[in-house]
Design a protein that fits this description.
Number of helices of chain A: 11
Helix content of chain A: over 70%
Oligomer: heterodimer
Radius of gyration of chain A: 23 Å
Helix content of chain B: 40-55%
Number of helices of chain B: 13
Radius of gyration of chain B: 23 Å
CATH superfamily of the largest domain in chain B: Periplasmic binding protein-like II
Order of helices and strands of chain A: HHHHHHHHHEHH
Mean pLDDT of chain B: 88
CATH class of the largest domain in chain A: Mainly Alpha
Number of strands of chain B: 12
Structural class of chain B: alpha/beta
Strand content of chain A: under 5%
Largest sheet of chain A: none
Low-confidence stretches of chain B: 9-21, 307-312
CATH class of the largest domain in chain B: Alpha Beta
Structural class of chain A: mainly alpha
Number of strands of chain A: 1
CATH architecture of the largest domain in chain A: Orthogonal Bundle
Largest sheet of chain B: 5 strands, mixed
Mean pLDDT of chain A: 90
Number of domains of chain B: 2
CATH topology of the largest domain in chain A: MetI-like fold
Shape of chain B: elongated
CATH topology of the largest domain in chain B: D-Maltodextrin-Binding Protein, domain 2
Strand order of the largest sheet of chain B: 2-1-3-12-4
Chain lengths: ~280, ~300
């Protein structure tokens, strides 16, 4: 190697290293700041109390329960639709059809749409036309629409990455396509699909704007009884606290963020565990 | 003897059943973020008395809240301004009635950095000079010749807020008429931050944000005319009306039909007016004179009169 190229290589390596550590550094700073401000407010009471005008008495219970509800219903709605669409687009639909290509292009576009647009769509479609009111169901369906493209695209890519020979082997054994998809392609694609689902659901749980448009409430001192009930979620509660004049509420917001992060972290860990389990059966 | 004891037991039992048979229902509220802390405080307090009434409060802004209210989706709307002509005609069209009830005062505070030692008072016309559309003011000296020749940096609320609406109306003579080259934020804490970190800054926002940050920022006393005395925003000056022209009432709009048909709404509104004087101060606003609350309480009780005797 000429000395010039060696130097270039070194410089390039350092550039990459700096960007990596830079990103990690900013993240660490952010986490440290949040932990520093909010950690002393974290207590069992904080988790189990209803919201209050007094910072010492305020808790995040209703928002936490609301977030769990929203997450579960969104997942139930979005996973079958997302994977089903991806299977159809990759395994069944004609790749040459103009219409299918148009659909694929639009799914990619939808994945990049600002979330507030989905909020407005949800308000008109679910809240007003379908008459779901400001319910958990309306919120979950809206968030479902928001993250559906992400799951479809991730699943498509995972399915596409399964080698063609796996399918051919299946066909050679006389399997129909549905058998090949269910028993060969999907198990091989599950780790990739799971990654997509984790990212999508994490995004859904962290969204504020579309839910505010839908009418997620800022003060709810009761737990939802069913999925047609009114609700609030963690990010909305945090947003509300952060806007208060009293500095104690800003610390409460930080504490809320810690709870939200812990919640997301638990979620991701579970998903990673599932992914690992499936990876063992890899081809 | 046994019979007497049994009687006592039974009466206790019936008493506890009676207490158990508390109100159950829903109160739907939405609207202004400015009024939200007050209504939230009342809702929290109300929960101690009627734990089974589910009070839910959203924050869609005064206008957004009215849209829902006039669609019949809510019972009460928090409003940091009075209802507009356009909204009234929509109310007529949708046959939704409303009753305007003032619940507290807010004093819009004009604030500066704590190291600002020159601006000890300001007149309304000077404020207008600064904030009017097409204003030429770029330095403090432009406002008053004795002030330093340093750039004045302005912060104010976004154009959707009720504070913006009231301030522009009171200072510039017409709502929404304002210069536009200043730092806007819907988040009042950002405005506070701007003034805290900048010696040459000026901002205006709600009284609560000033009182909570008193050690870090100063409010300029405002003079209505050249000759009148300068009045700083405070609990007393806002309450007795001497803080002019920037003290404004904030309201709730209640649906009289809900008052009649929904006992929970009726009881909640009554509790609102009974406890407002105490709770309003708690959350950083200025209570109205007691007589005002009494007057509104009477009005509410007449509007939902069918119910008055049945509860207490």
């Amino acid at each position: 190697m000429s000395p010039h190229r060696r130097r270039m290589n070194k410089a390039f390596k350092w550039c990459c290293r700096i960007t990596t550590y830079g990103a990690i550094g900013v993240l660490a700073l952010l986490l440290f700041h949040i932990a520093y401000e909010g950690m002393s407010w974290i207590s069992w009471d904080f988790i189990t109390n209803f919201p209050s005008r007094k910072a010492e008495k305020a808790g995040i219970y209703t928002a936490l329960v609301g977030s769990v509800y929203v997450m579960v219903i969104t997942t139930l709605f979005v996973v079958p639709f997302g994977i089903g669409t991806a299977i159809y687009l990759e395994e069944y639909a004609s790749q040459k059809s103009l219409f299918i290509r148009f659909v694929k292009l639009n799914i990619a576009n939808l994945a990049g749409m600002p979330s507030i647009i989905y909020g407005l769509l949800g308000l008109t479609l679910f809240v007003r036309i379908m008459g779901l009111d400001r319910s958990i169901l309306a919120g979950s369906l809206t968030l479902g629409l928001l993250v559906l493209p992400v799951i479809i695209i991730a699943s498509q890519e995972a399915i596409r990455a399964v080698p063609q020979m796996v399918r051919e082997a299946g066909f050679a054994m006389g399997a129909r396509r549905y058998q090949v998809v269910i028993w060969q392609v999907l198990p091989a694609a599950i780790p990739g699909i799971m990654t997509g689902i984790i990212l999508a659901i994490s995004r859904a749980v962290g969204e504020t704007a579309p839910l505010i448009v839908i009418g997620a409430l800022s003060y709810v001192a009761f737990l939802p009884e069913d999925m047609f009930d009114m609700f609030t979620v963690l990010p909305v509660q945090i947003y509300n606290w952060a806007g208060r004049p009293q500095p104690e509420f800003h610390s409460l917001a930080a504490a809320g963020i810690i709870v939200l992060l812990a919640f997301l972290f638990t979620l991701n860990s579970i998903a990673v565990l599932i992914r690992e389990k499936f990876q063992r059966y890899k081809l | 003897m046994i019979r007497a004891m049994l009687f006592i037991c039974l009466s206790f039992l019936s008493f506890s059943i009676h207490a158990e048979a508390a109100l159950k229902g829903r109160v739907m509220i939405d609207g202004s973020s400015t009024v939200f802390p007050i209504t939230e405080a009342v809702a929290e307090d109300f929960r101690n008395i009627q734990p089974r009434v589910r009070v839910a409060i959203g924050v869609s802004g005064t206008g957004g809240g009215f849209k829902k209210y006039l669609n019949g989706e809510t019972d009460i709307n928090n409003a940091s301004r009075t209802i507009k002509e356009k909204e009234i005609s929509l109310a007529k069209k949708n046959q939704i009635k409303f009753k305007e009830i003032p619940v507290a005062y807010d004093g819009i505070s004009v604030v500066i950095n704590k190291d600002n030692d020159w601006a000890t008072d300001i007149t309304v016309s000077e404020l207008k000079k600064i904030w009017q559309p097409g204003s030429k003011v770029t330095t403090w000296k432009d406002v008053r010749p004795t002030w330093p020749d340093k750039p004045i940096r302005l912060y104010g609320p976004g154009t959707d807020s009720g504070t913006f609406e009231y301030f522009t109306h009171a200072i510039n003579g017409k709502a929404h008429h304002s210069r536009s080259n200043y730092t806007k934020s819907e988040d009042d804490n950002m405005l506070v931050q701007g003034v805290v970190s900048d010696k040459y800054a000026m901002a205006y926002f709600g009284f609560a944000y000033y009182t909570e940050n008193k050690g870090r920022i100063k409010a300029i006393p405002v003079k209505l005319t050249e000759t009148s005395t300068a009045i700083a925003p405070s609990l007393s000056s806002i309450n007795d009306g001497s803080y002019k022209p920037l003290a404004r009432p904030v309201f709730i709009y209640v649906n009289p039909d809900s008052l009649k048909a929904n006992k929970s709404v009726f009881e909640f509104t009554r509790h609102y007016l009974k406890s407002a004087a105490r709770l309003v101060k708690d959350v950083g606003y200025v209570p109205l004179p007691d007589s005002e609350y009494q007057k509104s309480l009477k009005l509410v009780e007449t509007l939902g009169s069918v119910r008055v005797d049945s509860v207490e």
